[in-house]
Amino acid sequence: MESSQIILQISLLVDVGLVVLIWMVQLIIYPSFTYYKPENLIKWHQKYTAGIAVVVIPLMLAQLVLAIVAVFYQPSFTNIFTLAIVLFLWIFTFLSFAPLHFKIAEGDTNSKILQLLIQRNWIRTFVWSALLLFHLFLYMSLL
Predict the structure, then answer these.
(1) How far apart are CA 117 and CA 125, in angstroms?
(2) What is the pLDDT of residue 121?
(3) Is the dihedral of CA 56, 19, 64, 99 positive or negative?
(4) Which of 7, 126, 124, 127 is nearest to 67 (CA)?
(5) Rounded to whole angstroms, how far apart are CA atoms 12 and 9?
(6) Within a 10 A sphere around the Cβ of 128, how many other Cβ atoms?
(7) What are phi and psi of 75, to 5 degrees?
(8) All residues at 6 or more sequence positions from 134 whose CB lies less than 8 Å from its CB, including other chains
(9) Tens digit of pLDDT for each residue in 54-81?
(10) In this structure, which long-range contacts are made by residues 120-125, counting pairs with CB atoms below 8 Å and at least 24 apart in sequence?
(11) Is the distance from CB of 96 to CB of 118 less than 8 angstroms?
(12) Quick one: how far is CA 105 from the chain centroid?
């Protein structure tokens, strides 16, 4: 088995982890924020962000490293496209979600911020799901 196939297999595993996680965040976690009283949300949010970071950071880092390595070993359109999508997800997460989470951590728990989390997260949910399907299609075409 060549290195590009191994990278694709590992990428699929990472993609599955991220897709399961993002759908849980989208359907359960972010909507649940709207049910907390502000003081309880601030306390819960601190625990949530610390806990979710333990799962999200390694998965996102793994996805980024795998995309870079794939481009290095085989600089094809497919691999460059994947890297561009992964970079978009990183930039979108840090420019759009980090500021919202900082606001919540600082005590700003108004419904507009919570709704923005839910609405904007649909973009990440769609993109991560599409990336998984794309990689699954690529993998199936190799069989």
Answers:
(1) 12
(2) 98
(3) negative
(4) 7
(5) 5
(6) 22
(7) -75, 65
(8) 82
(9) 999 999 999 999 999 999 999 999 999 9
(10) 120/96, 121/22, 121/25, 121/26, 121/30, 121/97, 122/26, 123/92, 124/22, 124/89, 124/92, 124/93, 124/97, 125/22, 125/23, 125/25, 125/26
(11) no
(12) 20
Within 10 angstroms of residue 77's Cβ, the number of other Cβ atoms is 7
- Measured between alpha carbons, how far is 143 from 141 in angstroms, rounded to an integer? 6
- What residue has token string 């561009």? 84
Q: What is the identity of the amino acid at 94?
A: F
Residue with tokens 């997800």: 89
64 and 42 Cβ atoms separated by less than 8 Å: no
* Predicted confidence (pLDDT) per residue in 83-132, tens digit: 999 999 999 999 999 999 999 999 999 999 999 999 999 999 999 999 99
Position 1 scores a pLDDT of 62
Residue 142 pLDDT:
86
